[in-house]
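Appendix B, example 12.
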Amino acid sequence: MTAPHTYIDQTRLPYFFCPGCSHGRIIDSLNQALTQLAINPRNLVVVTDIGCVGLSDKYFLTNTLHGLHGRSLTYATGVKLANPDLKVIVLIGDGGCGIGGHHLINAARRDIGVTTLVFNNLNYGMTGGEHSVTTPPGGVTATTHHGQIEQPLDICGTVAINGASFVARTTAFDRQLPDLIAKAIQHEGFSLIDIWELCVAYYVPSNRFNKKRLLETMSALNFSSGVILDKPGREYSQAYRQTTVEQYGKPALPEKPIETRYPHNLQGRFQVIIAGAAGMKIGSAATAFSRGAVLSGLWATQRNDYPTTVKAGHSISEVILNTDEILSTGINKPNMVLALFPEGLAKTKQTIAQMTSDDLLFIRSDLLPVETQARIITLDFQSAGAFRRKKEYWAVMAIARALRETGVYPLEAFKEALALRPQFASENLAAVQAATG
């Protein structure tokens, strides 16, 4: 294709930045670099971060992506991994580098083939001029009225020590900036240019700052300028594909097909909620229930809900069975609920109250009464012999009882599903026997 004479949509000009803002200068330099390299716009992705810099993507006649604050490097990494042949350029501010610092470090550590241009105006220019991770010592901002006292982040030093293979620092007023950007884009690994600039809305008036003081401040901080690091790297997206070339076209996990071995008595969709407590093997029992359904020729989905504490609070499994493929996994009103522990019952009381006389509620007798129109079948684990104190098997026992009562699919299919985990099979099968006689 004929190389475009510009990568900027002229119909959108002038730039929507504050008069005198350096952002426009950097975008112009990037445009010159792209024109110099004559990259096919279809093979170019510009990813922008939140902040004033986030207004930039609309000006480019390329593929663009705009996301959450500090997360632009994660999006860019995903784009590059999906298609290593693309040129991916991230436009991020010093605020985004602070908020997404761990993403910055990991992009450098991987040496992913992404070019990052940091629009570093030393403060949060969009939200009121607060201090950022790069505000110099003594800098007066909306949040440091008496001067900034923190050590500013050396962005170049941070990415260089963590694996980046091309690093440079300069200002938006550098006449060689287009050539420097072009060199960074041509680099195969992770490249970053920390471009210091002026925020005329906040930082300049609060600190009597100007372009001369940009270089003076760099020098006072012992921050090097120009090309700081330029070395060959092992670009991550290409290296990853080389490492996994033998897996192309193969499933991520080995296939373990489950053949139909039993009949079922289901007509359409059947929705089940197992309401239990953390640590009581609710999810494991629900998985066996789902596998038994698949052994019986049904489609099955499972969704688990539990708090971040994992070992305390509720544990709820939602299982949907269907004779056809399940395209929606949400449960508005269940056909059956197994209420086994107070924690799960507390989370599902409102759902149980909405059940009708066509629905079934299996519930421990000591958890009654509850508000519901569902047909109630009580569960009495205290008469289950050795399992009356083994609460972690109550979910398996409740499912076995429910299968015997409903006949959705054969109890033998559930037993076979339990036997697929041999280390727990004997106890689980004994629990089924205790529940069904």
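The radius of gyration is 31 Å. The mean pLDDT is 95.
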